[in-house]
Amino acid sequence: MEGQTGTMSGRTIMIGTRGSDLALVQATATEALLCVKFPDAEIRRNVITTTGDRRTDVSLADVAKSEGTFDKGVFIKELEEALDDGSVDIAVHSLKDMPTVLDPRFRLAATLERAPVCDVLLTKQPGGLDALEKGARVGTSSVRRAKQIEFLRPDVAVLDLRGNVPTRIRKLAEGDQYDAILLAEAGLVRLGFLSEDESVSGFPGVFAHRLPESEFFPAAGQGAIGLEVRADDGESRAFAESICHAETWTKVTAEREFLRLLDGGCHTPVGVYSHLEGGVISLFARVFPEEGGTPKTGEASGTDPIQTAHELFHSLT
Question: Catalytic residue positions?
Answer without folding.
Answer: 97
